[in-house]
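Q: I'm building a small set of examples for a reading group on sequence design. Run inverse folding on the following structure and report the sequence directly after it, with nothing in between.
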């Protein structure tokens, strides 16, 4: 059995959430403590809310006065409603909430039936039941109850680097699936805008929207997540980021935008997309060839069928890039013209990566580099004192004004090096002026 505990201050919101399940005939009240229960399995939200308020202190230092717990047995565990209620009561007793007001609701909206408990965590005198070490305490209690009632052990699934991201399964635990998708996408992919974020989420039937506004004079900025089908139609109630975890919050996602800006390198993706574009005959061919290269192209259309957004998802580099970020030749406008008119296909020269100093022209129109070294094997051209075969030391050599022909290149010449050093010294003397 897996238990998840959420602390909050929206008691009415938690009651309304459970009341919605009951109204849709996908939930039943099993038991209550110090809260009115008519035994019908239904809930009068307003009546329950007033009952909870009677036990609330007039003042308390606690910011989060209530808790919302979900108890999730293994899929293979079959229990009666009486057993579910007894399990929940024992759990609350062992957690130290036996005397607190709470309500137990069974949810049947997914194949794995489970329990939700809404409870107060502040006493009438204003003191708070500590949540210190709640995670470890709850885990030990779950193991104890599993043994007592002969239940299967159900540990929360751990996310590993090689775990595949799957599309939302409407028959499964949608909230858990959305949370896992958001967490894994955030851990693995780099993106810089909400559009890019939604492009990668959309591959797995998840959508995110910003929520901005004011409540009681206070400004707020949040995120809401939706589960969708393959056509983008929402299939379940939305989830506030706070219900999924801190990793899904507006603050966390904005932080990922900022960090990605320093980590993203568009060159590998641009080179591969350019090669594919040069070989493609049209839209379908372009998308199919990109997919063969492990790149997904997500297109967004206006109501009249015009492409207004194009995002490339490179699974090789785990990078999400709007077309215009790669280059205007790959933007939505260019793709729309090409797909509607084959003669409008952009012409993009496909070049192989090479050191920056090779292939560049000097002021006189000559190409830098030395012909005597062009036929050398790659391993010989790139040798450096550090053993780096990439030639990075040559690429980063400082340029000297007026001495382009003597710039250090793949072939190392001691005489040229000595000449360059002498010219540097002479230039420094000129800047300092003559000795008086």
């Amino acid at each position: 059995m897996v238990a998840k505990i959420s602390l909050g201050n929206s008691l009415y919101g938690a009651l309304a959430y459970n009341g919605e399940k009951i109204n849709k005939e996908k939930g039943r009240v099993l038991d209550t403590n110090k809260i009115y229960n008519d035994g019908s399995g239904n809930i009068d939200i307003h009546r329950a809310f007033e009952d909870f308020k009677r036990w609330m202190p007039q003042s308390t230092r606690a910011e989060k006065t209530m808790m919302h717990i979900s108890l999730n047995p293994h899929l293979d565990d079959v229990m009666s409603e009486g057993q579910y209620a007894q399990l929940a009561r024992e759990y609350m007793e062992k957690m130290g909430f036996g005397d607190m007001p709470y309500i137990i609701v069974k949810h049947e909206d997914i194949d794995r039936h489970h329990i939700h408990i809404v409870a107060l965590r502040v006493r009438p005198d204003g003191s708070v039941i500590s949540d210190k070490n709640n995670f470890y305490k709850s885990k030990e209690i779950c193991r104890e109850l599993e043994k007592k009632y002969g239940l299967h052990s159900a540990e929360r699934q751990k996310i590993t680097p090689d775990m595949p991201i799957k599309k939302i399964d409407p028959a499964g635990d949608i909230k858990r699936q959305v949370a896992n998708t958001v967490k894994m996408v955030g851990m693995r992919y780099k993106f810089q805008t909400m559009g890019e974020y939604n492009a990668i989420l959309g591959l797995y039937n998840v959508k995110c929207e910003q929520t901005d506004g004011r409540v009681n004079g206070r400004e707020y900025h949040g995120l809401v997540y939706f589960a969708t089908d393959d056509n983008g139609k929402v299939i379940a109630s939305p989830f506030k980021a706070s219900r999924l975890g801190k990793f899904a919050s507006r603050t966390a996602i904005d932080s990922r935008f900022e960090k990605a800006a320093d980590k993203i390198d568009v060159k590998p993706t641009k080179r591969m997309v350019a090669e594919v574009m040069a070989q493609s005959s049209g839209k379908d061919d372009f998308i199919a060839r990109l997919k063969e290269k492990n790149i997904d192209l997500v297109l967004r259309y206006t109501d009249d069928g015009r492409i207004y957004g194009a995002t490339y998802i490179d699974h090789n580099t785990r990078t999400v890039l709007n077309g215009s970020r790669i280059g205007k030749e790959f933007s939505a406008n260019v793709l729309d013209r090409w797909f509607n008119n084959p003669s409008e296909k952009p012409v993009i020269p496909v070049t192989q990566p090479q050191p920056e100093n090779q292939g560049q022209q000097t002021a006189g129109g000559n190409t830098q580099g030395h012909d005597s070294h062009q036929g050398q094997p790659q391993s010989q051209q790139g040798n450096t004192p550090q053993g780096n075969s990439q030639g990075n030391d040559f690429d980063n050599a400082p340029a000297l004004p007026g001495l382009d022909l003597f710039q250090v290149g793949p072939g190392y010449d001691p005489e040229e090096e000595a000449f360059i050093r002498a010219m540097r010294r002479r230039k420094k003397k000129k800047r300092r002026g003559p000795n008086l």
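The CA atoms of residues 33 and 99 lie 8 Å apart.
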